[in-house]
Design a protein that fits this description.
The complex is a heterotrimer. Chain A is mainly alpha-helical. Chain A contains 28 helices and 2 strands. Chain B folds into 2 domains: about 180 residues, 3-Layer(aba) Sandwich (D-Maltodextrin-Binding Protein, domain 2); about 150 residues, D-Maltodextrin-Binding Protein, domain 2, CATH 3.40.190. The chains are: A mainly alpha, B alpha/beta, C alpha+beta. Chain A: InterPro entries: MetI-like, MetI-like_sf.
């Protein structure tokens, strides 16, 4: 802001005070559960404290858990990038039917809870699944295919398929912006195709790949449900170890130890990602123009077709099988399996019919959590933006920016139990709402500040020169720009909280059964068809975001 | 530059969710309604499952007393026990069904349960009454055994030691001793047979284990889906297949080591606001009426001597028993699970 | 001939580019045209960056159109320069030499020579992001020349620079191209740049080469009204009718601004002119001179144009630039530079001025360029 803009400065000052108060509220909202958890874990309240249980902690168990966590996360990331890269290349280069759909898949990891995808994979890749049946058909006999699931590679496969769309979306967006001239320059200087790619494209692509990989790595690093369902005895991630320490060993001290280690490594990952993001932005600063897409020719078409078919078989197939299985009523006494609404009926009419209650509970709890997250996120997002615009990176602003990474750095178990310790009557539903809101608000805040930043400041300035007061300019220009992303982010927050099974599981919540919990229980009990019916309901609910397409994906 | 209609729709949607939340808030709060008393029962998965006894019990008890019963599943028995001992919150149930004899000692020292005066206690088999204070009372029992799929083309094992043979590589499903009572029972079984050498046995057993599932439901589900030919369960399990599928394909294997017994207990929490009604409920659980449908819903032997066994139990044989306790219930389950995880 | 492009045709997304020309050794050819005319596409086709539909490209007598880019050995300077940001300046310049596996001593020698010639010896250890616009320009040029290509192609490399630097770089490049005996094709849409750099100019429009020659060739006979306007050579006045004069090639063109005598030897028959095709009189600025008001009676043979002085733009010690509005024509504004002194007073804004036209330089031209026959 230029000087001689006194009134604006003054107003900014006032706004800043109000925002600072709001920020402190958000700050305590996010950090209080951590403090409460740490305090209870260290001091102990009617249970083993950290000091008391220190002696019983087995170092090899911790080391093994860490090793396994890292190993599976590395393998999953490598595979996800491996699957995603060809897709990113195709989407960045060619115009083809389904291109937008391929990019829109990036919403899958955010819109569809892991438990749903796990269910899909069991249905599809399990021993009795469609894929196995297809293999048997091709091989001509019932071979010894045991299914990949319930093994390390099964876990990695699920992680990879769950996360690869992120790689496709992020890398292709970057790839499209890398100008051809770098590669062409190398060619005119005598480099062959490979060499030209290495000189002209790869250096720009690598930070983007690394950034996507870092993000996927973090998601896999914190993987919980998948490991809980598939991991069995394959290994236990830190997240699962925290869960076990809390739920089965009543040992908050051990849980704290695990979560501190987890957070330490996650921070390393975040440091890496932010570094790569900066590097990417630094490199991309001059590249304004997007590349034009071309129509695929000859062999490129073949590649495209192969990739499409593989995706259909390995990724879309499982998702579709949920829909099919939801309506397939399994064979029971005196009847063959048939299609109908039987599974839904059983969930709606049977003993202690869970479906309606679960829908209600999910709407109530996630709705509240999403609302809380949206309010906190909008305030945080606007304040981060104002802080940046004013050029003075206020201390609170910096903290809020850092806090946005919190859900990627701290186990949901810590938030959940922290809030449980804080809530007056140890009310689970209150702890759940608060913990889920803490996890969801950074998504809203990031969306808001990003959309504010994407707004050309000249638009605001034009508004001012045309006679609008700063407040009016903000209301008529800024607010209109952020409104769609706030709405998308709110829907998105609802999606992640509604699909979240981690916090309820961590809390051992079962008096109130949400849809993902119901899904988890039905899946664990091998009532797959009913699970699919419940999953379909959940998928429709969380899939709202999917229909908001680009906006929502940008939030993600 | 922007489409207004979807925007409005989104806002309306968010608003609707918000108001739905507010209006439904009360309904999800546990036992908020005044009216008729409602008993809350914490139990494990299979008890409330489709074919489990919960629905019948609720119906029967409501007929008898007019009171409603709500069952809450807490996972398998191990998870159920953990929920009772949660560090952050007190259990808000009236009744707990499904702790077993291995958890009994720790459960009784926790002071969670109130002593009960029950009419039907007189009919209960005397050898099952392990708690003289009658805070936890037995309602059924069974024997652990491995179930073998006779159509699997694999030789049935004859002992725990046989399970470690290379031919059973990835052929056995057991349950997690931390989260499930059958898993805990299996741990006790190996401790009874191998004494101090149990850890070594678990290491040798490791290659044979296809999966260590968090609950019996999951493990048995995996087994019936054909993922493995051997699963840890009960000697009474074949009765289920006899009754529902009229098949004797799945057989309970007799092991030379003997078979540990599992007794399942129920109790009333001392924090319950409806202790008398809860006591009536437990009495009903032990009654002849209730006990006579337990065999074909729980697939266990009834604790009440006067309850008759159904025809399907003709396929169940009683095996020589072995007394099996867990040496250190706080440490050993985790140790055992970690042996399987790390030796993978 | 260094480069020969024969019958070339490039088709890209419905856009058709046709080209046929040759370029002598040590000459600088400028491809000039408005954006979207295909000049960059032509350059890229020569470099092998754009697939060609038909035609031949010969470099030093050898066919290169089937070779991949990296085998053509043509230097290329891109519009965005495309410096390798991850490499130091030294490695950027050495790139083509290293790929050709030249020996280290030779590479060093060559880099030192180029660095000295392009005055970038102090920048060798820096990264491109640390350079100014002009420095980046020189590095890009040095890199393109490192392996001594037989042809160098420049795709509007100066477009990103601001005016004074662009002028300086233009001179610098002309000096380098001349002293280095380089054969080059330079693409630009800037007429001034073309005039400064070119030995020869090819003007392109809509994928076709519409004119070719030295700058004075083009000024003498631009071939179309469009080109005269594009190059800002002179006035183009719409012709309502013509009447034949006694000389074989001279016609009297009747325009709204007045009657102008001009030669018609490079246009079609007057019969055709009358049939309605759009024609104009090209009056080069060099053919106009201010008429001394005292000599009004001595009527100029070529015709007289009346103009209103809108504004006197710049007054240097010896010249004056006037913004004029042509009477009779709708909104025809143009600039004219007058020599000062000799009794000419600074004219008043709003006053009229009479301009004498030299008929020898005026041409009757079609409005639109005539395309070469396919």
């Amino acid at each position: 802001m230029q000087s001689g803009n006194g009134s604006f400065e003054q107003r900014l000052g006032k706004t800043e005070i109000i925002l600072s108060i709001a920020l402190i509220a958000i700050l305590s909202f996010s950090l209080a559960p951590l403090v409460a958890f740490a305090k209870n874990a260290i001091v102990g309240a009617g249970h083993a404290s950290l000091l008391a249980s220190l002696g019983s902690i087995s170092v090899p168990v911790i080391v093994r858990s860490l090793q396994f966590t890292l190993l599976q996360a590395f393998a999953s990331t490598a595979l996800a990038i491996g699957i995603g890269l060809p897709g990113a290349w195709l989407a960045a280069r060619f115009r083809f039917p389904g291109r937008r759909a391929l990019l829109a898949l990036a919403a899958v990891p955010f819109c569809f809870p892991p438990i749903l995808v796990i269910l899909a994979f069991i249905l599809y890749y399990g021993k009795e699944g469609y894929f196995s049946a297809f293999l048997a058909l091709v091989m001509g006999q019932k071979n010894e295919y045991r299914g990949l699931l319930y093994s390390f590679w099964g876990l990695v496969l699920v992680h990879a398929f769950y996360n690869f769309p992120i790689a496709v979306h992020q890398i292709s967006a970057l790839w499209m912006r890398i100008p051809e001239s770098q590669k062409e320059a190398a060619k005119t200087l005598g480099a062959n195709r490979i060499m030209a790619f290495r000189t002209g494209t790869l250096p720009w692509l690598l930070p983007g790949i690394a950034q996507a990989a870092g993000l996927i790595f973090l998601y896999c690093f914190f993987s919980f449900t998948t490991v809980l369902v598939f991991g069995g005895r394959t290994g236990s991630t830190l997240e699962v170890s925290i869960y076990q320490a809390l739920r089965y060993q009543a040992n908050a001290g051990l849980a704290l130890l695990f979560s501190v280690i987890e957070t330490g490594f996650a921070l390393l990952g975040i440091w890496f990602i932010t570094g790569m993001t900066q590097k990417k932005q630094h490199a991309l600063r001059d590249f304004g123009r997007r590349r034009e897409l071309s129509s695929p020719k000859g062999s490129q078409r073949v590649l495209l077709a192969i990739y499409g078919i593989l995706l259909l078989i390995f990724f879309i197939g499982p998702l579709v099988s949920i829909v099919v299985e939801a309506f397939r009523v399994p064979a029971s006494l005196g009847g063959a399996s048939h299609f109908g609404f039987g599974n839904f009926e059983r969930l709606l009419k049977g003993f202690q019919a869970p479906l309606l209650k679960a829908i209600r509970a999910t709407l109530t709890l996630s709705g509240s959590a999403a609302l809380l997250a949206t309010i906190a996120g909008v305030i945080a997002g606007i304040s981060v933006f104002i802080g940046k615009k004013a050029g003075k990176l206020h201390f609170t602003n910096r903290i809020v920016e850092a806090l946005q990474w919190l859900p990627l750095a701290v186990s949901p178990a810590v938030f959940a139990y922290g809030w449980l310790f804080l809530s007056p009557d140890r009310t689970i539903s209150a702890a759940l709402i608060a913990a889920q809101a803490v996890i969801a608000w950074p998504f809203v805040s990031r969306a808001v500040s990003a959309s504010l930043q994407s707004l050309d400041p000249r638009m605001r300035e034009a508004g001012r020169t045309l006679g609008a007061s700063p407040l009016r300019a903000f209301l008529t220009i800024d607010l209109r720009v952020i409104a769609p992303s706030v709405a998308a982010a709110a829907a998105f927050a609802f999606s992640i909280t509604a699909g979240d099974v981690n916090v309820p599981l961590m809390l051992g919540m079962s008096e109130i059964e949400t849809l993902p919990l119901l899904l988890f229980r039905l899946t664990a009990a091998y009532r797959f068809n009913e699970a699919c019916a419940a999953g379909l309901v959940l998928g429709l609910m969380t899939g709202i975001v999917f229909f908001l397409k680009e906006k929502a994906i940008d939030v993600a | 530059m922007m489409r207004r209609k979807p925007l409005i729709a989104i806002f309306l949607g968010v608003g609707a969710i918000f108001f739905a939340s507010m209006s439904l808030w009360g309904q999800t709060q546990p036992s908020a309604g005044a009216g008729a008393p409602e008993l809350v029962v914490w139990t494990y998965d299979s008890f409330v499952s489709e074919w489990g006894p919960a629905a019948q019990i609720a119906e029967g008890f409501q007929k008898q007393s007019g009171a409603k019963v709500r069952f809450v599943s807490k996972g398998d028995g191990g998870a159920l026990f953990s929920s009772l001992l949660d560090i952050a919150k007190k259990p808000n149930a009236d009744i707990v069904i499904g702790l077993d004899d291995r958890q009994l000692e720790k459960a009784l020292t926790s002071d969670l349960f109130a002593p009960l005066k029950l009419v039907n206690l007189a009919d209960i088999q005397k050898d099952l009454l392990l708690d003289p204070s009658n805070r936890l009372v037995p309602f059924d029992f069974g024997q652990f055994a491995f179930i073998w799929d006779s159509e699997s083309n694999i030789e049935p094992p004859r002992s725990l030691e046989d399970l470690t043979k290379p031919i059973y590589r990835k052929k056995v499903i057991i349950m997690d001793p931390r989260t499930s009572t059958p898993g805990l029972g299996f741990l006790a079984w190996t401790q009874a047979v191998y004494k101090a050498g149990w850890r070594d046995y678990w290491k040798r057993l490791s290659p044979s284990i296809l999966a260590m599932t968090p609950s019996w439901d999951t493990g048995y589900g995996l087994f019936t889906k054909g993922e493995a030919p051997l699963v840890l369960s009960y000697s009474t399990s074949p009765a289920y297949h006899k009754a529902y599928e009229n098949t004797e394909r799945y057989k309970a294997l007799k092991f030379s080591d003997g078979h540990p017994q599992q007794i399942e207990f129920a109790g009333v929490l001392s924090t319950s606001q409806n202790k008398l009604l809860a006591q009536k409920f437990v009495d009903y659980l032990l009654s002849q009426e209730c006990q006579s449908f337990l065999p074909e819903t729980q697939w266990m032997f009834p604790a009440n001597r006067s309850a008759k066994l159904p025809a399907s139990f003709s396929v169940v044989s009683k095996y020589p028993s072995v007394n099996a306790k867990v040496q250190d219930i706080d440490r050993d389950p985790s140790d055992a699970a970690n042996i399987l995880i790390s030796s993978h | 001939m260094s480069l020969e492009v024969r019958n070339l045709e490039v088709v890209r997304d419905g856009f058709v580019l046709k080209a046929d020309f040759a370029l002598q050794d040590n000459k600088v050819l400028v491809l000039l045209g408005p954006s979207g005319c295909g000049k960059t596409t032509l350059l890229r086709a020569i470099a092998g960056l754009e697939p060609i539909k038909q035609g031949e490209i010969l470099l030093k007598g050898k066919r290169i159109d089937a070779l991949p880019t990296e085998k053509r050995h043509i230097g290329f300077v891109f519009q965005d320069l495309a410096l390798f940001e991850q490499m130091k300046v030294r490695d950027n310049i050495a790139y083509s030499l290293q790929i050709r596996r030249e020996n280290k001593a030779h590479i060093k020698e060559r880099i030192d020579y180029l660095a000295m010639r392009f005055r970038i010896d102090h920048l060798l250890e820096r990264y491109p992001s640390e350079l100014s616009g002009g420095e980046r320009q020189r590095v890009a040029l040095a890199r393109a020349l490192a392996s001594d290509p037989s042809l160098i192609l420049l795709d509007e490399p100066l477009s990103a620079l601001d005016a004074p630097l662009r002028r300086e770089m233009r001179r610098f490049m002309r000096v380098q191209l001349t002293q280095g005996y380089l054969t080059a094709i330079h693409v630009t849409h800037d007429v001034e740049e073309a005039i400064d750099l070119a030995d020869e100019i090819i003007v392109m429009r809509n994928g076709n080469m519409i004119a070719r020659g030295t700058i004075s060739d083009l000024e003498n006979s631009p071939g179309s009204g469009w080109l005269a306007r594009f190059m800002n050579f002179g006035l183009t006045l719409h012709v309502d009718a013509v009447s034949r004069k006694k000389g074989a090639n001279l016609v009297m063109a009747h325009c709204k601004a007045g009657d102008i005598l001009c030669s018609a030897h490079d246009t079609a028959q007057s019969a055709q002119i009358e049939s309605g095709a759009s024609y104009c009189v090209y009056v080069p600025f060099s053919s106009l001179s201010a008429l001394d008001s005292k000599k009004v009676l001595a009527r100029a043979p070529g015709g007289i144009l009346h103009a209103t002085i809108v504004r006197c733009i710049g007054i240097l010690s010896s010249t004056m630039k006037l913004l004029l509005s042509l009477s009779g024509e709708n909104e025809q504004f143009f600039e004219m530079t007058l020599a000062m002194g000799g009794g000419i007073l600074v004219p008043k804004e709003g006053s009229e001025i009479e301009l004498e036209v030299d008929p020898a330089k005026c041409r009757l031209l079609p409005e639109e360029p005539r395309l070469p026959k396919a």
